Amino acid sequence: MPLVTSKEMFRKAYEGKYAIGAFNVNNMEIIQGIVDAAKEEQSPLILQVSAGARKYARHIYLMKLAEAAVEDSGLPICLHLDHGEDFEICKSCIDGGFTSVMIDGSKFPFEENITVTKKVVEYAHARGVTVEAELGRLAGVEDAVKVSSKDASYTDPDQAVEFVERTGVDSLAIAIGTSHGAYKFKGEPSLDFARLEKISNLLPEFPLVLHGASTVLPEFVAKCNQYGGKIDGAQGVPEEMLKQAGKLGVCKINIDTDLRLAMTASIREHFAHNPGDFDPRQYLKPAREAIKNMVKHKINAVLNSSGRL
Ligand SMILES: O=C(CO)COP(=O)(O)O
Ligand SMILES: O=C[C@H](O)COP(=O)(O)O
Ligand SMILES: [Zn+2]
Ligand SMILES: [Zn+2]
C-alpha cells in the first residue's frame, strides 16, 4: 500500500467518533517509535512534518523514512505537512510526494486566508492531495515563533462555515483554547466546548483538527526535572477534554510536545545512570521505546483509534 491521504481516515473517524493521531516527526527513531506503536495497535496514522523538521532532517530523508514505514508496517499512513506558511512550501511537499498538506493562513486577515487556502486546494486536489487549513489563531510556539495570547483568537463559527464553503478545504484546524508547546494554561485548563459544538453542528460530517493537543503528562516533566532538566510550570490539555473533542467532530489530534518530553526524559535518565555511555544507540534505543510507549498510550487513552484499520 502506498502513502494515503487523510480522506478515508477522517470519514471513518467521524463516523466512529474517534480521532486520528497526527504525530510530528524529525528523525528515524521518532518515526520508528510511532509506527511500531501504531502497528501493535493496528491504528491508522498521520506522520506530520513541520517546516523546521524539513529543514532539520531534509525532505528526501523524511519522505524515504515514511515510505519505509508504510512498507514495514503495512498500515495506512498519511504524510502531512504541518503549518505550511505559504503556497510554495505546500507545492514543494505536494510535488515531493506528501499526501496531505496544511496551509496555515491564520496570521492573515480572513479574505487573504481564503485566497491562499483556495490556491493550495486547487493545486493539491488536482494531484490527489488533501488540504487542512486554519481559522482562528492558536497561542504558543510555532517554529520558534511565539504567538502571544494577545495575538491569538478563537475561531468564529459562522466564518468557519463560509471559509469551508469558499475554499473547498478538506479539514479545518480551529482555535478553542489549546496552544502549542508545554505551557498551555496558567490556571485551570479550560477549552471552549460550546464553540466547538457550534462549529461542529454547523459543519456536519466535516473533520475538524485540534492543534496544541499534548497532555504534558506530569510524570515526564518530573522525570526531565529529576535528571537535570528545568521545565517549570508546564501544563497540557487533560485527556478527558481531548476524548470529548473526539466525539464532537475533531478527527485529527496533533501531538508533538508529549513526544519531545518522552524522548528527553528517557535520554536524561539514561545518561544519569550511565554517564560513561557514548554510543548513540545506547540512549536512542530506550528513547525510541519511550516514544513507542507514549504513542500506544495516546492511541488507547486519548484517540480511541486502536483496531480501526
Ligand atoms: O499542534 C501541534 C503541531 O501542529 C503540536 O501541539 P503540541 O505542542 O501540544 O504537541
Ligand atoms: O506546531 C508546532 C509543532 O510542534 C512543530 O514544531 P517545530 O516547528 O518546532 O518543528
Ligand atoms: Zn497556526
Ligand atoms: Zn500545530
Automatic annotation (TrEMBL):
Q: Where does dihydroxyacetone phosphate bind?
A: G181, G212, A213, S214, N254, I255, D256, T257
Q: Which NCBIfam families match?
A: cbbA, fruc_bis_ald
Describe the function of this protein: Catalyzes the aldol condensation of dihydroxyacetone phosphate (DHAP or glycerone-phosphate) with glyceraldehyde 3-phosphate (G3P) to form fructose 1,6-bisphosphate (FBP) in gluconeogenesis and the reverse reaction in glycolysis.
By sequence similarity, the record places it as follows: Belongs to the class II fructose-bisphosphate aldolase family.
Q: What is this protein called?
A: Fructose-bisphosphate aldolase
The UniProt entry, under InterPro entries, shows: Aldolase_TIM, Class_II_FBP_aldolase, FBA_II, Fruc_bis_ald_class-2
- The residues that the entry says bind Zn(2+) 1 are H83, H180, H211
Q: How is the cofactor bound?
A: Binds 2 Zn(2+) ions per subunit. One is catalytic and the other provides a structural contribution.
Query: What cofactor does this chain's UniProt record say it requires?
Result: Zn(2+)
Pathway(s) where this gene product acts: Carbohydrate degradation; glycolysis; D-glyceraldehyde 3-phosphate and glycerone phosphate from D-glucose: step 4/4
Query: Residues that bind Zn(2+) 2, according to the entry?
Result: D104, E134
Q: Which organism was this protein described from? A: Acetonema longum DSM 6540
Enzyme Commission no: 4.1.2.13
Positions of transmembrane segments: none
Q: Which GO MF terms does the UniProt record name?
A: fructose-bisphosphate aldolase activity; zinc ion binding
Entry annotated with the keyword Zinc: yes
Q: What class of enzyme is it?
A: lyase
Q: Which UniProt keywords apply?
A: Glycolysis, Lyase, Metal-binding, Zinc
Q: Name one GO biological process term.
A: fructose 1,6-bisphosphate metabolic process
Q: Return the Pfam families for the record.
A: F_bP_aldolase
Q: Could you tell me which SUPFAM superfamilies the record lists for this protein?
A: Aldolase (SSF51569)
Catalytic activity entry: beta-D-fructose 1,6-bisphosphate = D-glyceraldehyde 3-phosphate + dihydroxyacetone phosphate
